[in-house]
Every structure is written in C-alpha cells, then in structure tokens.
Write a structure and sequence with these properties.
The protein is an alpha/beta fold. The chain has 19 helices and 18 strands.
C-alpha cells in the first residue's frame, strides 16, 4: 500500500461513492478510514438491547432513493434492498390530530382534505408540478454550482414563467410558502415539518424549497430504509468497490496531505508511513479539517482560511434510541404505520423552535423526528417489539446535563401523544454531540447536516464563496465530504462531484485544466 492512482481519505458514503466511480474508470483506488470500520454516519449496531438494531445516525433515505448518483451505481446488483413502512411520514399535532404523507397519492390527498377540502387538489397540483420537473431539478441539484447545463434543461422544461415562480420559491420561508398553497394546517405542516427536518427554521428565507423537496420525495419515492440497517448501504458500497479492485483500510488515520510544487502527491498516516497518489487525493472530511489540519497553511490562500473561520455549522443534535416491548401506542391511529413521525410542534411551535435555536436558547418544546424502524424493516428487532429513535436539536456547545434534560423532554413529548410509551421501554441509549462526532468526524459538534442551517452555504457557497466545485487551491486535491456542494444527506453528490473533477483533471490535463482551476482560484481568493 505504498502507492495508488487515487487515495480517498474517509470511508463514509461520499468517500466510497467517489472511490467506486474512480474504480469504474480503471483507477487503482485506496480508501483510508481512521475508525475501526467503514461507514461514518451510516452504521447500525445493537446499542440498546440484544436483537435491537439501531442506526447510529442516518436512518431514512429519500434523497438516496432518488439520487441519480446512487442509481447509477446499480447497488441492487450488489445486495441493496430498499424497504418501506406502510406510510412514509406522519405529522402528529400536540392535540393528536395527524396528517399523513404516503406514497399513495390518494391517501395523502384524503389526509390533507380532512383539514381543508380544497387542499386535496392543491396537493395533487403540487405533486404534478414535481413530476414535470423532477429529472431536471435533481440533475441541477447534484451538479456543481452553478448548474449551467442542468439549469438550461430545467428552464426549457418549465418555460420562463414557471421557472420564475420556481426561483421565487427558492427565496421563500417554508411557513409562508405553505400558507400560500394550502388552507389547512395538515398540508402546511407536512411541508413546514419537512423544512424543519432539513434543519432549517420554517421562517428562514430559502427554507421552502427544502420542505417542498422532501415532501415531494416522500410522495414520490417514500422515506425508504436499507434492509438490515443503514450500515448495509455501506457494506454494499464496499463490496462493489472491492469487486472493481479497490480496497478499504480501516484504523488508518491520515495526519497530512503531502504537497509538492502546489500538487497533492500523497498522504502521511498516523504511523508515519507515506502513501503516494499518482493522480489524485480525495478527502471525505469536513472542509475546516482538510484546510485547517491536513494541508499545511503555506499551500492555501489566506483568504480561504479567513472564510473558513466564519463557516456556520448546524445546531447540535440530541438523539435517543429505545428498545420497546411493543409498538408505540399512538393516540392518533394514523401514526402507527408511518416510518418517520414528526411531532411536538404545530405551526406556531415550529416557528418558536427555530427562533429559540437562532437565539442560542434551548427550546422548551422540542420538535422531534422519530423513526419507527421495525415498522419499516421487520429485521430490526424481535417479533412483536419495536426499535425506535427520536432526535431534536439544541444550541452548540451545551454540556452533558443539557443533553440529558433535552433527552427527557424528547421522551415526555412521545409520552404526550402516546400514553403508556414509557411502560414499553426495555432499554434506552442517549447520544449527544460528542457521541455523534465520535462516529463520524464530519458531524462536527453534533451537526448532522454539515451547515444546512446557513441557507447561503446550502444553496450557493459550499464550503465558502468560491467555485461551487470540489476542486481546491491545491492541484490534484479534491473535497469529497458533505461540506462540499450539494451538502449533507445521503445521496453521494459531494463524492461524485469530487470523482468527476479528478477524472476531468486527469483527462483534460493537456487542455490546461489545472491552469484554469488555478486561475479561477486566484480570482476568488486573490
């Protein structure tokens, strides 16, 4: 393991996607992971009780199921199987009303109509709009910013007038957009709740498009899970890579990216061993870690380092996993069949939740995302039982006592809508920011979405104002982690963009590709 065409730092799903795409082109690829096993935020373990398999971080994958990146890898041929709960999502109100989002359009329409009869047709119209621009929109989403070609195709498909309306939606707060489209609180909360699911305040400009995207994906592909757990998606990516000749080495921390004459030429591992990269180094690590720790400052523009000091991370996360002796006894019967449940807040509560976090305050009434994993995949726990998790957010930098108090509020919120829930608990496991970051270095301070709460970073400037590409100021070094465009969630976009940039650099070197990138970096960073 002294040399390879490409070295990938980090065996999270983005690093593994990048490695697979390079291996498909015949490159000799080595993936180095500091943790004992691959996966990063995609890991499944028995952390509550024997026989109960919990996803440590990510669990449901609407963007993964819709991702053209993952679809292009034909992962089903290597053993990936998506499973679905009867319904994708339920939003349970504090007063026990419930709105359901199902892959069955008629069921969703019937649910929102119970809150306002006219919302049935409004929801159908919104989904029809999605169907008309789905492919072009997803291509634009996964293309490095600015998405010139994909954006042109989207404009041709929609026409100028509809494109202008879509552009307006990019600027709207989710709560405002939902109120413009729907009269009833059911449909409005299905959209606003999904914006909050994306870690955005429902009153923030630009949050509407994320609520709309997740809502339409839930209607389209659902909120699926890999059979056996999130870790199975990683296992499939590893098997596919190894079948192409690539290799993954765990327990091998990288301490330095080796640079010579402005080019990345390899890495140095914690044991001091250097490994040479003949063509490229790809880093599935947070941008501040790459530029602040792995690459020596003398190779980086001072303006880039200054920009990174103001990179905004998400709020911290508090997650509780439970092993239950039976299904959650929801008072709202519609919630029983949902894989994902939103609860704890109505429209006003969602606004208050986001405002508290913006003020750096711990929300007294948390908004919860809850996963009924056995409902979605019967293999997750013994027959008749349920493996469940829920998480919420707190401001960054809070102590362990705050984490424990908020975990208690999480449990109380479930009990409020499901009296008798606590009586079913066989075991529980609480994770705060420290534990989550321990699973995956990309989850800095418990930030599970790599900066989505800063909308300017999510839409345009990841990780800092610049090219919107995975290319870096160091030639042959590419950023492949979730702090690169198009950001967090499990879809493989950052890894794919980094691999494609590395391949383009290799193929087009004679046309001056590296010189063009250097010139562009000079224009941005001085």
């Amino acid at each position: 393991m002294h040399t390879a065409d490409a070295i990938v730092i980090g065996a999270g799903h983005n690093g593994l996607v990048a490695a697979n795409l390079l291996a498909d082109e015949g490159w000799d690829v080595v993936v180095l992971e500091e943790q004992p096993g691959p996966g990063g935020a995609l890991r499944t373990e028995e952390i509550t009780a024997p026989g109960f398999r919990s996803d440590l971080c990510a669990a449901f994958f609407p963007l993964g199921a819709a991702s053209p990146v993952l679809d292009g890898l034909d992962l089903a041929e290597h053993g990936l199987r998506w499973l679905h709960a009867p319904d994708a999502l339920a939003h349970v109100f504090p007063d026990d009303r419930c709105a359901v989002l199902s892959r069955d359009l008629d069921r969703t329409a019937e649910s929102v109509a119970r809150f306002a009869p006219g919302d049935e047709q409004s929801w159908r119209g919104l989904f029809q709009q999605w169907q008309g621009l789905r492919e072009e929109f997803l291509d634009a989403l996964f293309t490095p910013f600015p998405p010139v070609r994909a954006g042109t195709r989207l404009l041709r498909r929609t026409g100028t007038a509809e494109a202008v309306r879509l552009a307006r939606m990019l600027t709207l707060p989710a709560r405002r957009f939902a109120r413009e489209r729907f009269d009833g609180e059911g449909a409005r909360l299905l959209l606003s709740g999904n914006a909050a699911h994306s870690d955005l305040s429902v009153d923030n400009a630009g949050s509407a498009v994320f609520g709309w995207l997740l809502g339409m994906l839930a209607q389209d592909v659902g909120f699926p899970v890999p059979e056996g757990g999130a870790g199975e998606l990683v296992a499939v990516l590893v098997r596919r890579l190894e079948s192409k000749g690539g290799s993954v080495h765990c327990g091998v921390p990288v301490t330095e990216v080796l640079v010579a004459a402005g080019k990345a030429v390899g890495v140095r591992c914690a044991d001091g061993e250097p490994i040479r990269a003949r063509k490229a180094v790809l880093a599935d690590v947070p941008a501040p870690a790459l530029y602040g720790e792995l690459v020596a400052p003398e190779w980086l523009p001072s303006r880039l380092l200054a920009d990174l000091k103001v990179f905004e991370w998400d709020s911290a996360t508090v997650k509780v996993d439970w092993a239950l002796s039976g299904p959650i006894p929801w008072t709202a019967q519609e919630a029983h069949g949902a894989g994902t449940v939103h609860l704890g807040c109505d429209e006003t509560g969602l606004s208050a939740f986001g405002a508290a976090l913006a003020r750096d305050e711990v929300p007294e009434q948390p908004f919860l995302l809850l996963g009924q994993m056995t409902t979605a995949d019967a293999s997750r726990s013994p027959a008749g039982t349920e493996a469940v998790w829920a998480y919420t957010h707190v401001p960054r930098g809070r102590d362990r006592a705050t984490v424990q108090r908020q975990a208690e509020r999480v449990e109380a919120a479930v009990e409020h809508n499901a009296p008798g829930f606590r009586d079913l608990i066989l075991a529980r496991h609480v994770q705060g920011p420290e534990e989550l970051a321990g699973h995956d270095a990309n989850l800095v301070g418990g930030a599970i979405n790599a900066g989505t709460t800063a909308i300017h970073q999510e839409l345009f400037f990841r990780p800092v104002p610049g090219l919107g590409r995975s290319d870096t100021p160091v030639d042959r070094l590419f950023l492949a982690g979730a702090t690169a465009h198009p950001g967090g969630a499990v879809h493989g976009g950052p890894g794919a963009n980094a691999a494609r940039a590395a391949l383009a650099r290799d193929h087009l070197l004679g046309s001056g590709y590296a010189a063009v990138i250097r010139a562009a970096n000079r224009a941005v960073y001085g």
